[in-house]
Amino acid sequence: MQDINPIQEAPQSPQIMWYRARAGKIFLSILFFILILTLGFFALTGYYVWQIKFGVGAEKLAEDFNPRFTADPSKSNLSSSNAITEDLNKFIYPTTPILGQVKAPITIFTFIDFECPFSQAGYPIFKEITEKYAPIVKIVFKHLPVESIFPNAMQAHLASACAAEQEKFWEYYDLLLTNKKLGSSDLLEYANKLNLDEKKFGNCLDSKKYQNNIDQDIIDSIDLGIRGTPTYFVNKTKIEGVITKDLFEKIILEQMRKNL
Fold it and tell me: Is 220 within 8 Å of 87 (Cβ atoms)?
């Protein structure tokens, strides 16, 4: 005779996996949306970097050079509308070359392409001004090589970053903009002139060790709406192209008065 248990357990309902529940589906949908936005951001950033370095953006930049970036000071683009509100300090990184007093009242960001003829033309004026006002000026250097226009620029910028690794960035910077020769042998010759460790410098340059740092500067130039080189920010006053020594001096003194 079969035993009958008078107390029987109620049948259990099948357990629903968390990701099939309503709350789980909502969570996954939000996570998927965030992932798509993140991927889209990085894809767009990469696209703009590519455009500036190799593509249509670089071609447009090349077109802009003639009317807007010139060695003729009378045609330089400078107006009161060039004042910006952006906090430029967020564009300074541990590897960013800086010259001058950390707490100087005047900070000059300089976006330069070592092969750009306008960057080269503006160099002696900028050099003279920054030496004269060295006690009150801090210089922040930003790389902006445009390879589609200047094919030797990227290698020169990589070389300068390798010189910075041996604490000789500004000396190397001077040699690049003074001599204006950017061939492979020239880059090595400058390193030798500065008594850099040749093997360390060569390995750094061959491996493109600081490519990501330079690419970040290019991204920063996009964020700041920079259209060509040279571009300077004297505190928050934007200067495009080559300007006269007197005008540069006037801008610095105006910024000084604002800090008094």
Answer: no
